[in-house]
Amino acid sequence: MELVFALGLIAFKVALLIAILLLLPLPLTWLERKIAGHIQQRMGPMRVGWHGLLQPVADGIKLLTKEDHIPAEADRFLFKLAPILALAPPFVVFVAIPFGESVSVLGAEITLYVSNMNVALLFVFAVIGIEVYGVIFGGWAANSKYAVLGSLRTCAQMISYEIPMGFAVIGVVMLAQSMSLLEIVRAQADVWNIVYQPVGFFVFFVAGLAEAQRIPFDLAEAEGDLGAGFHTEYSGIRFAFFMVSEYAVMLLVSVLSVILFFGGWNGVLIPLPPLLWFALKVAFFLYVFMWFRFTFPRYRYDQLMAIGWKVLLPLSLGNIIITGVAFL
Amino acid sequence: MSRALDRSGAWIGWAFFADLAGALALTFGYMFSRSVTMQYPDKEKWLPYSRYRGHHFLTRDEEGEIKCVACELCARICPCDCIEVIPYEDEKGNRHPAKFEIDMARCLFCGLCEDACPADAIALGQEYEFSSFSSRDLVVGRDDLLGKPGKATTGGGVVAARLNTEQDVLVETSEPQGYNWWRNIRRT
Ligand code: SF4
Ligand code: SF4
Predict the structure, then answer these.
(1) Is the CB of B37 less than 8 angstroms away from the CB of A39?
(2) Domain residue limits, chain B
(3) Closest-lying ligand 2 atom to the alpha carbon of residue B122
(4) Contact, B58 vs B68, CB < 8 A?
């Protein structure tokens, strides 16, 4: 009985998580277009529903009913595999992400995470690394020059930026003495990590921007010079997969920033429910992502590499050393 | 000294991303400025200035007779060769156009016909909604031109509008004067 209940709970949590992650891009695309519009003194979507609120639904229906085109020269197996490979890892990662302390519903303790791994951080970085395969396969299988160029760039970019990103969080791990995300948040109950680790956060966030392939590091799909980069040849539902994956990674980087550096669900001053605090902080980071997108131009490819290897990597290494020395 | 200070100041600013922060502040400011979108055709509509060069119209004199004397000067000066005038003489011996056709599909709205006309008979008015599915419908004859609205009297502005698609597609407005669209333009 106990076992059935526990399994049912896990299944329910996983289903809920998948539903949320699949549905969240809807409001996020709306928000992104609204923010884009208002920053450019436009209004953004206005016609479908109140202030264009149903526009993402209309777009979704359009994407689902569009022809799912596979180029004649494409590697059909990899072409079909790539969107799934790009979509699955960001979803899998959320298994390890805690959203709050346990809550008690009807007398039963319910934890707000699917699993509390003691190496959660390692798991997150390992799984998110798989996403790059989706991008590479997608670009390669399409057999188009734009797509190949886009995926080659992404490949180099992801590898370059995963290293400083991994190093940047080591400071946090040292402070919390644990790789479990739950422990890391608990360690920040009094003082958030951003106070001790501003450089770490900076490196993490910049690398996160690159990892999520957002402006100013969106070379993989640089609309201006590559068509749409690695997903140039994709259409219909497969294109939607890449889109959802992109938003999921964006959400993941926001969530990780909040958990690792901004105290997770620990609030300040105003006593709000922890889950609300968490959501507010994540929403702020999502806004920052969009705000950046419509403020900055894109970096050149060599600049991107230079920033990754010559600025972020030394900074993150120095951060580790200083944290270590301060600890002693 | 001060230049060196300036330079070191700039360096400090650069190190702390003062330029990027400035850009972010600018876009944040814009985010809360009023948008300039004119929600044509179902919510708002633009009223042209009096100088606006829209659809042509022909005018009548006090006796209700068409002012045009069919001198064909407008047809001559038109760079697009889109006016066709065929004159006739009425019983009093005055020349008038028997046929006066403008091909709006070719017209570039330069207004030269208006300038050339010795009788102030033709001018470019305020109407700008005359798109059609066939370029044949854009050849407008004498009687239609006589019925077209004249120059705008009020200055440009944006008024509330309503889209009526019952028979034709019409954008209806009732107010004669609206707000000045330029007031929402932010210049920084
Ligand atoms: S506005 Fe210019 S192009 Fe149009 S009919 Fe007059 S002269 Fe010709
Ligand atoms: S509209 Fe004016 S210029 Fe043209 S034929 Fe008539 S009088 Fe002459």
Answers:
(1) no
(2) 2-32, 37-50+152-188, 56-148
(3) 1
(4) yes
Q: For chain A, which residues lie within 8 Å of any Cβ of chain B, measuring from their own Cβ? A: 35, 37-43, 46, 291-292, 294-296
pTM of the model: 0.82
Tell me the pLDDT of chain B averaged across its residues. Answer: 85
Say how many Å lie between the CA of residue B109 and the centre of ligand 1. 5
Q: Determine if ligand 2 sits within 6 Å of the CB of residue B72.
A: yes
Vertex A75 angle, CA A74 and A80, to 5°:
100
Question: Is the minimum distance from the CB of B73 to ligand 2 under 6 angstroms?
Answer: yes
Compute the distance between CA of residue A241 and CA of residue A88 in angstroms, rounded to an integer: 10
Q: What pLDDT is recorded for position A303?
A: 84
b/e burial code for range A255-294 (CB count within 10 A of at least 16 → b): bbbbbbbbbbbbbeeeeeebeebbbebbeebbeebbbbbb
How far apart are the CA of A26 and the nearest CA of chain B, in angstroms?
21
- pLDDT for A68 beyond 90: no
Q: What is the ipTM of this complex?
A: 0.78
B56-148 topology per CATH: Alpha-Beta Plaits (3.30.70)
The stretches of chain B forming alpha helices (DSSP H) are 2-15, 18-31, 73-77, 112-116, 142-147
Domain ranges of chain A: 74-100+115-327
Residues in chain B, overall count:
188
Q: What is the whole-number distance in angstroms between the Cα of residue B91 and the centre of ligand 2?
A: 20
Nearest to A294 among B27, B32, B36 (CB): B27
